[in-house]
Amino acid sequence: AKQLGRNGFALFSSDLREQAEQRILLLKDMRQALCANQFVMYFQPIVTMQTMEITKAEALIRWQHPTKGIVSPAEFIPLAEETQLIHQLGEIAFTQAVDVLKQTQHFKNKLQLSINVSPVQFSAKHTTLLAWQGQLAKHQLTPDMLVLEITEGLMMQGEGRSQKRLTKLIQQGFAIALDDFGTGYSSLAYLKQMDTEFIKIDKRFVDGIEHNEEDLVLCETMILMAHQLGLKVIAEGIETATQHELLKQAGCDFGQGYFYSKPLPVEMFIDHLNTRNKQ
Ligand code: C2E
Ligand code: CA
Ligand code: CA
Ligand code: CA
Fold first, then answer.
1. Probe target for ligand 1 pocket from 56, 60, 147, with the most ligand atoms within 8 Å of CB
2. pTM of the predicted model, to two decimals?
3. Looking at this predicted complex, what is its ipTM?
4. How does pLDDT run across 173-186, given as a tens digit for each residue?
5. For ligand 1, is residue 251 a contact (CB within 6 Å)?
6. Which class for 235: exposed (0-12), middle (13-18), buried (19 or more C-beta within 10 A)?
7. Beta strands of 24-116 (E only): which ranges?
8. Closest residue (by CA) to atom 35 of ligand 1?
């Protein structure tokens, strides 16, 4: 039994060490990637449900790794948040979104772009968030062209620094979307109080609506409730025509998902918009 115990312990500690080593490697790799401009934003179209017109898009970060290929944000955002690198990634998202806004200003239908903002960008002692309005102004752009996607946790942090900054950004005119709605501890009172403009219904609700009556009822209820509070609804993860139809019938305002388009690299996204605009 002693032998086993010792083996067990040895295995456990070498696992931990391996994990720690991997984190250090990943961190080193990320720092190099920042210098080498390996982080790029992809843009996923968001359509107005009634017309299928592309009226918005969400910027989603990708790591173009020289040997691993495209690395998903799920693999590096958490570590970036722990190490404050998230501020630099947040700046990349903002800067590349501004670039796309500049390129699409002459389009008949102006786009509203959304970017994901980490709670860490709000809570850190120093933040670049409050410099964004000024940077937009330099390009004759206004905050209402951007939607900041935040998660419910941020809204629940009470009287802190984060909430003051959020209030400030709303005053400056940025639109706010509550991401992954229904998956956390949403407080409807906060929704109203914070002047949120959109809620995003999480993919895990959308997934079930074709086959599961309860999921459909949940989506319908979230949409009704949001509308009664004066909020607009974006459903994410729409993959089929049936899901599109059901959500459209339920009064959902905007849709996002592979059914319309996957996230696209900037040039492809602009091409896609150009083709659609000519039709
Ligand atoms: P999210 O904000 O909930 O983004 C939606 C995710 O769903 C994206 O994954 C998108 O590619 C994916 N998606 C959209 N439509 C479909 C669909 O029809 N089917 C399926 N299977 N997936 C769909 P992605 O790009 O891998 O991003 C994952 C998460 O990483 C995001 O979830 C967000 O929380 C985070 N993230 C992405 N970019 C950024 C960023 O620039 N900053 C921060 N802080 N977080 C980011
Ligand atoms: Ca999002
Ligand atoms: Ca989401
Ligand atoms: Ca999600």
1. 60
2. 0.93
3. 0.97
4. 999 999 988 887 66
5. no
6. buried
7. 39-48, 54-65, 69-71, 112-116
8. 73
